[in-house]
């Protein structure tokens, strides 16, 4: 990425709050997911898919069952929030025709996906080898996907304000759907690829969380030019921070594999990547703290990241000792409240570090384009100016010529 | 302003490029060294130094005759077992056996059954045992492969030695099966007998969904399921030899030499398993027509009469209200068994006609369900027709439906 991020965002405040709510809910969902893994409750209920209300009427008062079902209920909730978020994002599309086409596309996508689930639900008691994939619903889902992303990409090519946000939001919706399928198939295909899918489900959760955090950060009110230093922070610093985010994601991948299937190789890679990530993080944080312009942009995130890194080091050592430093095979170490808490916290703080690094990178990458924009395009308010701009683009597209 | 290596500029750019190159090359070198030391690794291979742990959990020697106070709770297995003595049962701690005897038993088990990485069944100076094991397909090679599958799929709940105390089993109710008594509930071989291989395969293939946490492994290749069944057999044989030897040591003062006793138990247990493989097959279900046909309805009526009889079968004694109000009882593992609820569509032991036939005919010795050897084959099939119709009110004849599902 050589150009700064587009930061012109005609997005209302309520949408920004919705993005924060979705990201926070996803973090809570991750908490529950990590508890499911720590307490080995992934197969507490082998029935999938189910209707959302099934989870309230079919349960046992077993801890594992309750954790796993609460995880599913939270997943449904997050799905609903993300749908609301995406529809809200498309509602802010200035061109009316494109707006409605995209919204219809989102609804078709959701309907197709829902019908796919319904088709699988009807075959719940059928042997997995005899399950028929509901092809029509797959086609409908694909049509919805093409409509939404077709509109979104065309908007981006036309330079419509906020197009990148809508692509991001739509991607988050698709990611949430994929994540749901990964979790479900982990249960459905347990004996074949259950452990592998569990690890993939955990890894992909970081992608979903990152997308929603990115949305939350990009929809926030940018700093006004007067509060910024005249010199923008180093672009190199921004790129290194993106590199750090990527490295942290890789570290989480090793960690997820260790959680579910600790091979000797991944154990070593997790250790070595931890050293590397910490070194890069220290380098970046030092640069941030010693650069006033970077420091202002990053705000409290730098301190949050620093604190999380320190905590993660300690938790990592404890988690390692508890899993690998005992008398028996790691998978046979008895689950206690203490070791489950340590491992869960270690995984969660890893996610926290990832999204902190991501937020830091985004803040650093936002540079001069947004600084030269006038305060009247305060990004979080829906203003007449943005409406007018959108309509002008629409007219230009319909009748040819350039928008004023 | 402090200088940092992350500032823009031509000289800094050259420095950063070199730094990136050095870091990248170091990373590649480290990766090569890492792979060389660790290999791609297969987590399913047991470490060669790992041995089966000595048994230290409580031995259940006699179960109480009185009914338990209530159903089991997850995570309370050891506490429930500790209460058995106070309720008229009898348990013992393996650690009360002399250290010498325990050491001798551990040595015998290691010599005869190997380790998780190298499982085997043989007896020193007795080729007959090895031959018997091989006839049952329990060769060292197959058990080694089977052990890897067991570690991957089963160990989390059933534990390393098949003790039902895997970490994931802590939150499961009913508890995962402890194979070490050598007893299995759902057998097609007869009262108190060992299962034949297809009995184990059926449980592995179909699981026990809806009633227990045992999942289905039907998607696994048949060969792998066969291997798992063999490994379960291996753990059951090993566990039973260990259990019976320890029980002998705690129960009988001045008990004989441990290795000799264990050897005799090994031969007997193997012979029981081999006998089960050759047990007569279950009879084929008669053609009673489709549900709600006249012949089928007549069979259901006869089965209902037998089920509700106050003498003889006395099914309602344990399966009160057709299973809705079961009489809880202790099973041989000291845990709490709940007689089946026939109004539910799932039965743990399978819902096929032959599954239900086997349960009625042979009973379930481990939980105290009596066998019914004196019932004729027709009578048993009548009971089968009734039991399989109970979950579906419309399949019950008039008069019986109102009894099984009284209007509230």
Characterise this structure:
The complex is a heterodimer of chains A (404) and B (408). Chain A is mostly helical and 404 residues long. Chain A has two domains: 1-221 and 383-404; 226-373. Chain A has 14 helices and no strands. Chain A has helices at 13-38, 54-57, 63-91, 96-121, 135-158, 163-188, 190-218, 235-260, 264-289, 292-298, 301-324, 337-365, 368-371, 384-399. In chain A, helix 1 (13-38) runs antiparallel to helix 7 (190-218), helix 1 packs antiparallel against helix 12 (337-365) and helix 8 (235-260) packs antiparallel against helix 12. In chain A, 46% of the residues are buried. Residues 1-9 and 368-384 of chain A have low confidence and may be disordered. Chain B has 14 helices and six strands. Chain B has helices at 10-38, 77-82, 99-113, 127-135, 140-153, 155-158, 197-206, 222-251, 258-277, 294-307, 315-318, 353-362, 377-389, 400-404; strands at 59-62, 90-92, 319-320, 325-326, 329-330, 336-337. In chain B, the strands form three sheets. A two-stranded antiparallel ribbon of chain B has the order 1-2. In chain B, strands 3-4 form a two-stranded antiparallel sheet. A two-stranded antiparallel sheet of chain B has the order 5-6. Chain B starts with 9 loop residues before the first helix and ends with a helix. At the A-B interface, helix 3, helix 7, helix 8 and helix 9 of A face helix 1 and helix 5 of B.
């Amino acid at each position: 990425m050589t150009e700064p991020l587009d930061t012109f965002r005609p997005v209302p405040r309520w949408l920004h709050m919705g993005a924060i709510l979705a990201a926070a809910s996803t973090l809570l969902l991750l908490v529950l997911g990590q508890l499911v893994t720590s307490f080995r409750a992934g197969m507490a209920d082998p029935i999938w898919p189910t209707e959302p209300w099934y989870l309230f009427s079919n349960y046992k008062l077993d801890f594992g069952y309750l954790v796993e079902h609460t995880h599913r209920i939270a997943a449904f909730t997050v799905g609903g929030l993300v749908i609301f978020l995406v529809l809200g994002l498309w509602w802010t599309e200035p061109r009316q025709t494109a707006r409605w086409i995209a919204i219809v596309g989102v609804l078709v996508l959701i309907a197709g996906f829902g019908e796919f689930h319904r088709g699988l639900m009807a075959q719940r008691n059928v042997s997995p080898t005899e399950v028929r994939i509901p092809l029509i619903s797959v086609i409908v889902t694909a049509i919805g996907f093409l409509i939404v992303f077709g509109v979104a990409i065309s908007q981006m090519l036309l330079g419509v304000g906020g197009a990148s946000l809508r692509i991001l939001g739509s991607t988050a919706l698709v990611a949430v759907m994929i994540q749901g399928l990964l979790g479900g198939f982990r249960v459905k295909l347990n004996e074949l690829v259950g452990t592998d899918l569990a690890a993939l489900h955990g890894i992909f959760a970081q992608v979903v969380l990152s997308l929603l955090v990115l949305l939350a950060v990009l929809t926030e009110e940018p700093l006004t030019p007067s509060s910024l230093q005249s010199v923008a922070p180093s672009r190199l610093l921004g790129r290194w921070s993106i590199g750090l985010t990527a490295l942290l994601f890789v570290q989480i991948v090793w960690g997820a594999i260790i959680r579910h299937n600790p091979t000797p190789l991944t154990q070593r890679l997790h250790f070595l990547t931890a050293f590397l990530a910490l070194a890069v993080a220290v380098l970046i944080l030092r640069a941030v703290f010693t650069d006033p312009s970077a420091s202002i942009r990053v705000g409290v995130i730098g301190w949050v990241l620093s604190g999380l890194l320190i905590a993660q080091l300690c938790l990592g050592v404890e988690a390692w000792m508890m899993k690998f430093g005992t008398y028996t095979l790691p998978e046979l170490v008895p689950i206690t409240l203490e070791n489950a808490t340590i491992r869960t916290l270690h995984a969660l703080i890893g996610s926290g570090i990832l999204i902190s690094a991501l937020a830091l990178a985004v803040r650093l990458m936002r540079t001069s384009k947004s600084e030269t924009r006038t305060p009247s395009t305060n990004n979080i308010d829906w203003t007449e100016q943005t409406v007018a701009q959108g309509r002008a683009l629409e007219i230009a597209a319909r009748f040819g010529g350039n928008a004023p | 302003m402090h200088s940092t290596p992350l500032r823009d500029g031509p000289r800094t750019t050259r420095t950063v490029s070199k730094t990136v190159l050095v870091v990248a090359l170091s990373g590649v070198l480290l990766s090569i060294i890492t792979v060389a030391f660790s290999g791609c690794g297969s987590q399913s291979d047991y470490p060669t130094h790992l041995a089966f742990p000595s048994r230290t959990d409580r031995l259940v020697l006699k179960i109480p005759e009185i009914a338990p106070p209530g159903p089991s709770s997850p995570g309370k297995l050891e506490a429930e077992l500790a209460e058995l003595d106070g309720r008229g049962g009898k348990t013992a701690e393996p650690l009360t056996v002399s250290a010498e005897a325990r050491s001798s038993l551990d040595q015998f088990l290691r010599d005869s059954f190997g380790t998780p990485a190298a499982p085997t069944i043989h007896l020193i100076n007795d080729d007959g045992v090895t031959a018997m094991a091989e006839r049952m397909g329990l060769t060292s090679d197959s058990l080694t492969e089977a052990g890897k599958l067991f570690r991957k799929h089963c160990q989390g709940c059933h534990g390393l030695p098949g003790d039902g105390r895997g970490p994931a089993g802590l939150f499961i109710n009913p508890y995962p099966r402890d194979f070490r008594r050598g007893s299995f509930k759902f057998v097609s071989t007869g009262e108190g007998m060992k299962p034949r291989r297809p009995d184990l395969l059926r449980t592995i293939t179909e699981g026990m969904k809806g009633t227990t946490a045992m999942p289905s492994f039907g998607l696994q290749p048949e060969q792998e399921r066969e291997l798992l069944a063999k490994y379960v057999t291996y753990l059951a044989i090993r566990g039973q030899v260990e259990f019976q030897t320890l029980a002998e040591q705690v129960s009988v003062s001045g008990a004989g030499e441990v290795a000799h006793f264990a050897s005799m138990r090994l031969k007997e247990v193997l012979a029981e398993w081999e006998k089960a493989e050759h047990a007569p097959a279950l009879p084929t279900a008669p053609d009673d027509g489709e549900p709600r046909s006249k012949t089928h309805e007549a069979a259901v009526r006869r089965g209902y009469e037998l089920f509700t009889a106050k003498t003889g079968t006395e099914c309602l004694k344990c399966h009160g209200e057709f299973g809705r109000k079961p009489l809880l009882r202790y099973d041989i593992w000291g845990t709490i068994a709940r007689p089946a609820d026939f109004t539910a569509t799932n039965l743990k032991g399978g819902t096929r006609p032959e599954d239900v036939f086997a349960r009625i005919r042979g009973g379930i010795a481990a939980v105290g369900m009596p066998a019914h050897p004196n019932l004729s084959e027709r009578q048993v099939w009548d009971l089968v027709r009734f039991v399989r119709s109970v979950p579906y009110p419309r399949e019950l004849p008039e008069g019986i439906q109102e009894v099984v599902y009284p209007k509230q």
